[in-house]
Design a protein that fits this description.
Structural class: alpha/beta
CATH class of the largest domain: Alpha Beta
Number of domains: 3
Bound molecules: iron/sulfur cluster
CATH superfamily of the largest domain: HypD, alpha/beta domain 2
Order of helices and strands: HEHHEHHEHEHEHEHEHHEHEHEEHHHH
CATH topology of the largest domain: Rossmann fold
Shape: globular
Strand content: 15-25%
Number of helices: 17
Radius of gyration: 21 Å
Strand order of the largest sheet: 2-1-7-8-9
């Protein structure tokens, strides 16, 4: 198939749905790791099309949502420094930290600018040599290579007022951490397509090998997701657990070698704080010694103060798959997209925002 319409073909979709109904005999629970998958599943009503034997659960794959308050507070503290311009993707602006948000800091006259790519941030640094320009580096393996490229470019051009606050997270280690927590029983995982386009499918091999859980990489169109579920059901029903790619137009088993090399040049693996989980060993990226001078946290003296969680917000347990937005007493009451209490209601890929926009009934 070449065109996007073909991945929405109702005839092919019906055939896949029929096949899933035919093959799925025992109750199973699948987790879609990625918030982009959650949105696609809700938008296309996929949960309702699946047999009642299949229980679907949303995972922690929303980079804005998993950024811990302690790290959001650092971004807000950096924004309050004089002669600093903060550059960030739009979703981050409204995410509440412990006591404030970047949006509030902007209202208090901090210079905070929304950018659509990290190249825009580099351009702002080029145009403002008398200011320090800091890019808030959130995201999974998908965004890390472009941020690495921006640092290499800054070095090459001699742009010495450009910095990154490195809050990048890695997917396989948090998957392992969730499986080790053992709070939710899983039979299969829908692995993230965009992340896998960078890292490939090999890093997921521990999931079938060590945990006996089915594992399929999926794209984001309805037929991609149905094909992925079909493959997961097949693995579970036959007891043959492995890593499969149901997104061959986007993902190679070895990943994108050029992007991985860029990441490896600039970053090194470190422990990282995840909302709802805490410190997870070797689950983040920081600038390596050679590029530490671009690290905003190391370059500026900040005191973000004590961290604090919003009362009543259960984003942490939603990200671990233990709860759903419907379990939160604030959902649709004091927490809405206009007045979000937690990050899962802010981000376009957050579970709470998805349930809010597409209707709770889609949660089944
Ligand atoms: Fe947090 Fe709001 Fe979601 Fe509740 S509905 S978990 S308060 S983001």
């Amino acid at each position: 198939m070449k065109f996007i319409d073909e991945y929405h073909n109702p005839e092919l979709g019906k055939r896949l749905i029929d096949r899933i109904h035919h093959h799925s005999t025992k109750p199973i629970r699948l987790m879609e790791f990625c918030g982009g998958h959650t949105v696609a599943i809700f938008k296309h009503g996929i949960r309702q099309l699946l047999p009642t034997t299949i229980d679907m659960l949303s995972g922690p794959g929303c980079p804005v949502c998993v950024t811990a308050n302690v790290d959001l507070d650092k971004a807000i503290a950096l924004a309050r420094l004089p002669n600093v311009i903060i550059t960030t993707f739009g979703d981050m602006l409204r995410v509440p930290g412990s006591y404030s948000s970047l949006q509030l800091a902007k209202a208090e006259r901090s210079d905070i600018r929304v950018v659509y790519s990290v190249q825009d941030a580099l351009g702002i640094a080029r145009d403002n040599p008398d200011k320090s320009v800091i890019f808030i580096g959130i995201g999974f393996e998908t965004t890390a290579p472009t941020i690495a490229a921006s640092i290499l470019q800054a070095e090459q051009e001699g742009i010495d007022n450009y910095y990154v606050l490195p809050l990048h997270k890695l997917c396989p280690p948090i998957m392992k951490a969730l499986l080790d927590l053992g709070e939710v029983r899983l039979d299969g995982i829908i692995c993230p397509g965009h992340v896998s386009a960078i890292i490939g499918s090999y890093p997921y091999q521990f999931i079938p090998d060590d945990y006996g859980i089915a594992c399929v990489v999926s794209g984001f169109e309805p037929l991609d997701i149905l094909l992925c579920v079909d493959r997961l059901v097949n693995q579970i029903e036959t007891g043959q657990y492995k890593v499969e790619i149901a997104y061959l137009r986007g993902v190679k088993p070895e990943g994108n070698k050029h992007a991985l090399k860029l990441m490896g040049t600039v970053f090194e693996v470190c422990d990282a704080n995840w909302r709802g989980v805490g410190l997870v060993p070797l689950s983040g990226l920081r600038l390596n010694k050679r590029y530490q001078r671009f690290d905003a946290e190391r370059s500026f003296d900040i005191d973000p103060g004590p961290t604090h969680e919003a009362k009543g917000c259960i984003c942490g347990s939603i990200l671990r798959g233990v709860s759903t937005p419907q379990d939160c007493k604030l959902f649709r009451r004091s927490c809405t997209p206009e007045h979000p209490v937690g990050p899962c209601m802010v981000s376009s890929e957050g579970s709470c925002a998805t349930y809010y926009h597409y209707g709770d009934s889609y949660g089944r």
